[in-house]
Amino acid sequence: MNTEILGISITFILTLLLAIPLGRYIGKVYSEEKNWPDRFLAPLDRLFFKLSGIRPEKEMNWKQHLTALLTINLVWFLFSMFILMNMQWLPLNPDGNPGMSADLAFNTTISFVSNTNLQHYSGETGVSYLGQLVLMLFQFISAGAGMAVCAVVFHAMKERTTDKLGNFYNYFVKSCTRILLPLSIVLALLLVFNGTPMTFQGKSQFISLQGDTVNVSRGPAAAMVAIKQLGTNGGGFFGANSAHPLENPNYFTNMAECASIFLIPVAMVFAMGYVLKKRRLAWTIFGVMTIGCLLFLLPSVYYEMKGNPAITQMGINQQMGSMEGKEVRFGSAATAFWSVVTTVTSNGSVNGVHDSLTPLSGMMAMLGMMVNSFYGGVGVGFLNFYIFIIIAVFISGLMVGRTPEFLGKKIEAKEMKIAVIIALLHPLLILSATALSSHLYAHDPATYAGWLNNPGSHGFSAMLYEYTSSAANNGSNFASLGNNTPYWNITCGIVMLLSRFLPIIGPLAIAGILAKKKYIPQSAGTLKTDTGTFGIMVLAVIFIVAALSFFPALTLGPLAEFFGMK
Amino acid sequence: MKQHILPAIKLTLVCIVVFMVAYPLLIWIAAQAAPARGRGETVVSQNKTVGYRLEGQSFTRDNYFQGRPSAAGYNAAGSTGSNKGPSNPDYLKEVNARIDSFLAHNPGIERADIPSELVTASGSGLDPHISPQAAMVQVKRVAAYRHISEERLKQLVQQYTESPFLGVLGTSVVNVLPLNLALDQLK
């Protein structure tokens, strides 16, 4: 077999195999059961609770969870705005980088607080080392917050009637200390010993063999790269993200970084199986997610390895595939693989340029973010999938004439309304924002000429991608878009904000309401939700929602470009 | 909200201490044992730093093996890809121009022998590598400029070819900087 294909297959399989024991571990963390690393980590948790005056055993209902989440996010917002706008005089700035403008700081803050990591700045010139460390802090705590809400939903899904759903701070702290921190340390060490820098010295200089003077950006990169991969954050240290040779030095680090993107999202599914003692349900959900992911993966790898048809016509050799925007040490298969994995989860780091992907691979990346629940972000990916399960239960209940029930709880009008609103919010935000921008551009191309640096349908794709990425809290982009302007900073900021918190509030509310309802034991009349048939039903619901909402827009963008190139 | 604001502030402060100070410090300490103490590995020749092992640099002269086109101009303080769409007509013109220029500088090479990575920009603008084929296709030119036999240069390229990870995963690569350094020392 081709070594490039073998490389990505092994990465994929190893990650799935690792996710099973990790899921068990996470399940134990959220069930307050003993795990072997507790010996070192439990004292750390106790320190957190003691210093912050938190009683982790105090249980909350879903509304209290929500208040705790929103309050702490507000604190984070203010802290980040202050640092990012004042980096010029704060310490740890050896390269003398400037502070951010208010609109850029707003965008960057929302972006990192919401676990999106869309970057309208470039790491080398746009932030100081202090700025990088603050953003790295958010990569831990925004991921931890998402996972905490997911843990609350797990507990709400249990077969009992209650409104006590554990303590938010407890889940949050343990997500950070027992899951994200140990894994980040392992990955960061691995990177440091493969050549990723971890230094507080500023730029260095050398004179090249041909006599050019070259400045080299460095910094405390390894620590940040590790958590940005593991926490489905994606915000890179350097401008080129994981395509940068210091951020991702070789094929081995590429495998490790790529695996880290979807390791925790997959493990969360198995964690749910452990917490609820429903392994079959976990495997069904895992199966649906994996099939969905493969449906994007296979065409993407095929088209990238085949090469750019316009370059094929020039008569040169594309044995490595479409190489514009890719690195030789990864090759086109590993870059295509990464582009799908990073978009189906809400990671958004890249090891190549997504703008230069061939049209259909670019579309697969967009579809990954439009569905946003094939594995999905750490914590929030499962929440998105939960919405689709609720809708699928309702539709299939109607189809076979049974009361729609999920895990012994009746699904009624209120829950359905929330689920549908959340499912439709995603396309609504993406499409209306893209429509507004297209309208502005089409009516005054001279004023907005700086926006699009690729003409025709690809230019439209760049705008569609930007909002899709914002709404999916992904953070990758078609970087040809001139996006560091007040218009893009503010509109993307608003889209990221709404699509971070509403899709967390929705599932949390549904789960909280369901948890309070009477538990109805399974009977012959119950619709089984852990079967292949139901899995197919969920997959169908996802594709109907995604296809009906996004197909027209995709026709104008990547599909038009694809057929135009034949 | 009132009862949550104080714990939220205190918890954030503890998070700052653990994740923003202690964690990077731990990795920094470990880095002191890593190659180049985590400051980036340099390549030294005749007591002078001539580059970083992992970062590509610009080679434009015909007597050197050349790396990939770079949208960043090999500026190691400003990494970037070209962000050109695959159907962008200006971009395709640029690729065509690179092919013509390559053919002009490499007499005796056919179009079909040019690997696409030699005429397309890398993702970071700092790609240190080319494929072994991309090195081999330049052997004829370099040999002519250096008055070294093609056989000898082919051997050198083979010597500097790094095989895929564990021999079977990923791509084979040639790091251009060490190859050119070896070339300079060949006499």
TrEMBL record, chain B:
<keyword id="KW-1003">Cell membrane</keyword>
<comment type="function">
    <text>Part of the high-affinity ATP-driven potassium transport (or Kdp) system, which catalyzes the hydrolysis of ATP coupled with the electrogenic transport of potassium into the cytoplasm. This subunit acts as a catalytic chaperone that increases the ATP-binding affinity of the ATP-hydrolyzing subunit KdpB by the formation of a transient KdpB/KdpC/ATP ternary complex.</text>
</comment>
<feature type="transmembrane region" description="Helical">
    <location>
        <begin position="12"/>
        <end position="31"/>
    </location>
</feature>
<keyword id="KW-0406">Ion transport</keyword>
<keyword id="KW-0813">Transport</keyword>
<dbReference type="GO" id="GO:0005886">
    <property type="term" value="C:plasma membrane"/>
</dbReference>
<keyword id="KW-0472">Membrane</keyword>
<keyword id="KW-0633">Potassium transport</keyword>
<dbReference type="Pfam" id="PF02669">
    <property type="entry name" value="KdpC"/>
</dbReference>
<dbReference type="GO" id="GO:0005524">
    <property type="term" value="F:ATP binding"/>
</dbReference>
<dbReference type="GO" id="GO:0008556">
    <property type="term" value="F:P-type potassium transmembrane transporter activity"/>
</dbReference>
<comment type="similarity">
    <text>Belongs to the KdpC family.</text>
</comment>
<keyword id="KW-0067">ATP-binding</keyword>
<keyword id="KW-0812">Transmembrane</keyword>
<keyword id="KW-1133">Transmembrane helix</keyword>
<keyword id="KW-0547">Nucleotide-binding</keyword>
<protein>
    <recommendedName>
        <fullName>Potassium-transporting ATPase KdpC subunit</fullName>
    </recommendedName>
</protein>
<dbReference type="InterPro" id="IPR003820">
    <property type="entry name" value="KdpC"/>
</dbReference>
<keyword id="KW-0630">Potassium</keyword>
<comment type="subunit">
    <text>The system is composed of three essential subunits: KdpA, KdpB and KdpC.</text>
</comment>
